[in-house]
Design goal:
With 84 residues, the chain is mainly β. The chain has one helix spanning 42-51, and strands at residues 6-11, 15-21, 29-35, 62-67. It is 12% helix and 31% strand. 19% of the residues are buried.
């Protein structure tokens, strides 16, 4: 079970897209698209995306992130980007 609001992200080699799901059953609200090259790591991109949210809503309490990489263990190396 996840705690709402939930940050959802689609992290690819070129861009990371983030949205916020405010409550169960709600449609995701797009926050931003972040170029992976503009950030040293995923945390930086998440912080930048959340900083662009000017709605004054509650901050996320959990996150679900999809990554363009093979997941074998605790660390993931993106297939087409420098992020780990």
């Amino acid at each position: 079970m996840v705690a709402f609001p939930v940050l959802v992200g689609d992290i690819g080699g070129t861009n990371a897209r983030f949205a916020l799901v405010e409550e169960k059953g709600a449609a995701p609200r797009l926050l931003s698209h972040e170029a992976t090259v503009d950030h040293p790591d995923p945390s930086s991109a998440v912080r930048a995306s959340l900083a662009k949210d000017t709605t004054g809503g509650r901050p996320p309490r959990s996150a679900i992130l999809a990554v363009a990489a093979r997941v074998d263990g605790p660390r993931v190396q993106l297939t087409n980007a420098h992020w780990r």
